[in-house]
Amino acid sequence: MKPAGVVRKVDQLGRIVLPKSLRKRYQMNEGDPVEILVQGDHIILERFRPRCVFCASMEEVTDFKEKQICANCLREMNLLLKKA
To answer: How far is CA 53 from the centre of its chain?
Structure first.
């Protein structure tokens, strides 16, 4: 993880502002969902990308009843249903 060399203060509501240069560099736009991850003593911000609830894949993910499922898991589920 490379430091960006930018310091920001947390406001009274717990918010920080990401500098425009970082938002532009990482293609983060107003309204985009951001995932907050914790790794040891570090807080990591990432653009949110949906992951399959079964295998955690980020490839070909679609929504099904408010859950994300990848195409491979969906195919496997369909095969199981055909066997039943």
So the answer is: 13
pLDDT digits (tens, 9 = 90+) for 47-79: 888 999 999 999 999 998 999 999 999 999 999
Q: What angle do CA 48, 51, 53 make, to 5 degrees?
A: 135
* C-alpha torsion angle, residues 28, 34, 40, 42 (rounded to 10): 40
DSSP secondary structure string for all residues of the chain: -----------TTS-----HHHHHHTT--TT--EEEEEETTEEEEEE-----TTT---SSEEEETTEEEEHHHHHHHHHHHHH-
Whole-model pTM: value is: 0.59
pLDDT of residue 24: 92
Cα separations (Å) of 57 from 18, 53, 69, 78? Answer: 28, 8, 9, 18
